[in-house]
Amino acid sequence: MTGIGHNGGPGIPTSGWQRYAWRRARAELLPTLPIEIVRRRVRRARELGIDYKSYASIRAATGRDVIALLFSSNALKVGPKVVAIPETEATRLTALTRTTRLAATHLPLAPTRLLAANPGLLDRADTAPTLAQGWSETREVLHRMTGAEGLPSDAVVVVGETMLEQEWAIAGRMAGYLDAHRYFAST
Fold first, then answer.
1. Of 144, 143, 138, whose CA–CA distance to 154 is shortest?
2. Helical pair 163-171 and 135-148, crossing angle rounded to 10 deg
3. Can you list the residues of the chain whose pLDDT is less than 50?
4. What is the reported pTM?
């Protein structure tokens, strides 16, 4: 018996020759990238400081290259008392090439104070969305951040530490989310 949405065709085989044939046919449908393109994407992932597997999955999901990283103040380990970005994080920010470096600062840290204390490390900083804002307000705040730089939101990856920051990627329709510990720990 079939339910709503069933096309009436046979089910997917679970064992034997049919399963092998099904998997092989599916694999042949998936595109195989030329080695030059793979090498270029590996280099680009390195430029962004992202492991290739994460970079490739972001590219596959969005269909475009990552052109900016949005760091939360938590990810940068800064706050109202400690405004200077620690050496490990600063070194990673300096190493980024062909990438816009954005920061979203949690209150009470002012974006201008973060930029003044860390000249040349960030291209732009704005106040982060708050817990009191809903999804549409959060989206508007994030789009103002990316739009001010002329960036499409689905080409920006959020690097953060908390669940709230992870939700920014969803609410803002961003390219993806990377955990700050993993991002700054990888080489």
1. 143
2. 70
3. none
4. 0.81
DSSP-derived secondary structure letter, 158: E
- Longest Cα separation, the chain: 67
The alpha carbon torsion through 65, 141, 138, 172 (nearest 10 deg) reads: -10
Whether 30 is covered by a domain: the verdict is: no
CATH code of 43's domain: 3.40.50.1000
Cα separation, 99 vs 104, in Å, equals 16
Domain that holds residue 68: 35-185
**CA-atom Rg of the chain in angstroms:** 21
Please, what is the Cα angle at 50 between 107 and 39, to 5 degrees? 155
**Alpha helices (runs of H) in the chain, residue ranges in sequence order:** 16-29, 35-48, 52-62, 87-95, 111-117, 135-148, 163-171, 180-185
Structure tokens at 104: 């979203």
| C-alpha–C-alpha distance, residues 91 and 97, integer Å | 12
Rounded CA gap, 115 and 179, in Å? 22
Whole-angstrom Cα distance, residue 106 to residue 93? 19
Query: Is 180 strand, coil or helix?
Result: helix
What's the token pair of residue 111? 């974006």
